[in-house]
Amino acid sequence: MASDMFVVPQTRGTVLCCKCGISMAPNPANMCVTCLRSEVDITEGLRKHVTIMHCPDCDSYLQPPRTWIKAQLESKELLTFCVKRLETDLKKVRLVNAEFIWTEPHSKRIKVKLKVQKEVLNGAILEQSYVVEYVQQDNMCDSCTRFQANPDQWVASVQLRQRVSHRRTFFYLEQLILKHDAAAHAIKIKQMDQGIDFFFANRSHAVKFVEFLGKVAPTKRFDLFASKGGY
Ligand SMILES: [Zn+2]
Ligand SMILES: [Zn+2]
C-alpha cells in the first residue's frame, strides 16, 4: 500500500510536457503547444527582407521576370504583388493573413505583416506573425526607358487632373482605367503632382481614351488637356 503513494494519477493516453509538466496528449516531442511555440520558430528561414524594383516615373513595380505592375501604396494590388514575391517561402507555411504596416511614403520601404501557420509534430499547428520589409530600388521600366530614349514620339497627350474636392472620384477613375485597360495604347503614363499624363503615339488612340473617360466619368470632375495640336 505504501508504494501507491508515489503513483501519479494519470488519465490514459496523456503524458506530461517535458518542459513545463502540464498534462497533455502525447506527441513526438512530448512538449505542449505553449512550450513548442517558445521553442520552435516557424518563420525561420523565411525571408524578412526583399528588394523590389520600382519605376519612379510611372509608379509601377517589377514582377519578375519582366512584367511591370502599376500599383499605389497601400493598395490591394500592391499587397498581392508583395505576397506573390514570397511565393517560394509561402510554400513552406500556410498564409493566414497579410496586411500593410504604415511606412513613411518617401522612405522607399514597404512593410507587410504576415500571419502564417505550420503543422509541427503530428498535428500541433503553430501560428506566428512576422514582418517582411521590401526595399524599393528605383529603376525605370521598359516603356519609360523607351520613352526617354525617344521623348518626341508621342503625338497626343491627355492630361488628367484631379480637383481637390473630387479626390475620391479621381481615385475611382484611375481604378476604372486600369480595370478596363483603357490606357493600354498609351506609350507612356506619367504620374504628376495633381494627376496623370497619358502619351499616345497615335491620335486616334488618344481620342478613344478621351471618349472612354467621357463615358465613365462626368468630365466636369477632371480637367483634360491635349497637346501637340489638339485632337
Ligand atoms: Zn509545456
Ligand atoms: Zn515606368
What distinguishing features does this structure have?
Nuclear Transport Factor 2, Chain: A; four-stranded antiparallel beta sheet; Alpha-Beta Plaits; alpha+beta; 231 residues
Q: Your description of this structure?
A:
By secondary structure, the protein is an alpha+beta fold. The chain folds into 3 domains: 12-39, no CATH class; 49-138, Nuclear Transport Factor 2, Chain: A, CATH 3.10.450; 150-226, Alpha-Beta Plaits (2-Layer Sandwich), CATH 3.30.70. It has helices spanning 33-39, 76-84, 142-149, 167-179, 203-216, and strands at 15-16, 23-24, 49-55, 60-63, 67-70, 94-101, 109-120, 124-138, 156-162, 186-192, 195-200, 222-226. Strand 7 and strand 8 form a beta hairpin. 19% of the residues are buried. The site of one zinc ion (ZN) has 8 residues, from helix 1. GO terms for molecular function: ribosomal large subunit binding. Belongs to the NMD3 family. One of its GO terms (biological process) is protein transport. It comes from Gossypium davidsonii.
In short:
With 231 residues, the chain is α+β, with helices and mostly antiparallel strands. The chain contains 5 helices and 12 strands.
How large is the share of residues in beta strands? 25-35%
The CATH architecture of the largest domain comes to Roll
- CA(first)-CA(last) distance: 105 Å
Q: How would you describe the shape?
A: elongated
Function: Acts as an adapter for the XPO1/CRM1-mediated export of the 60S ribosomal subunit.
Family: Belongs to the NMD3 family.
Subcellular location: Cytoplasm; Nucleus
Main location: cytoplasm
